[in-house]
């Protein structure tokens, strides 16, 4: 089941404000910065296991009240920033829910071992040629 099918938009809270930075007079008069807040603990759309995963993996994006926060202020229009926030929200959830593959240990190939040993031999020869042998 896709994440977008669950209709998280019902539980999202949006807040618009003036964004900082460059942009001329438009920045000073138009509230284009959008902040998305999502209450993870009180969500009816997430299972307990999913809530635990989100709280664990996205802990740095969750504030002290338990809200997952996403802020967008790149675009000049509030609507585009809102769309970007929603896209980022779904991407964050997707990343939190995907399980990392376990790394399988592998041995180095014969060719790579041979190349490494040849390199070491060349380096050793170089060093021995530099040394003073005296009167042999």
Automatic annotation (TrEMBL):
Which enzyme class?
A: hydrolase
Is the keyword Hydrolase assigned to this protein? Answer: yes
Q: Which part of the chain is the Prokaryotic-type class I peptide chain release factors domain?
A: 18-34
Give its E.C. classification number: 3.1.1.29
Where along the chain is composition biased (Basic and acidic residues)? 120-136
Return the annotated region ranges for Disordered: 100-136
- Care to name a GO molecular-function term for this sequence? peptidyl-tRNA hydrolase activity
Q: Name one Pfam family in it.
A: RF-1
Which segments cross the bilayer?
none
Q: Which Gene3D superfamilies does the annotation name?
A: 3.30.160.20
For bias type Basic residues, the affected ranges are 100-119
Q: Does the keyword Nucleus apply?
A: no
Ordered alphabetically, the record's keywords are: Hydrolase
**Protein family per UniProt:** Belongs to the prokaryotic/mitochondrial release factor family.
Q: What is this protein called?
A: Aminoacyl-tRNA hydrolase
What is the primary gene name for this protein? arfB
